[in-house]
Design goal:
single chain, alpha+beta, four-stranded antiparallel β-sheet, DUF397
């Protein structure tokens, strides 16, 4: 079975906020896109790069 969470916003996003990103997890990548422009560009990160980003963000 292939893992795919579909697109979602963080549970920490403020209700009605338009300053959010959406995230999508698969077996090998993490996708990120602007929640206001779901047809716009999507960024894709490897799992290791995503974990490194989160670790760094939590430190700051």
């Amino acid at each position: 079975m292939t893992r795919d969470t579909e697109w979602f916003k963080s549970s920490r996003s403020a209700a009605g906020s338009d300053a959010c990103v959406e995230v999508r997890f698969t077996e090998t990548t993490v996708g990120v896109r602007d929640s206001k422009d779901t047809a716009g560009p999507e960024f894709s990160f490897g799992l290791h790069a995503w974990r490194s980003f989160l670790t760094s963000a939590k430190r700051h």
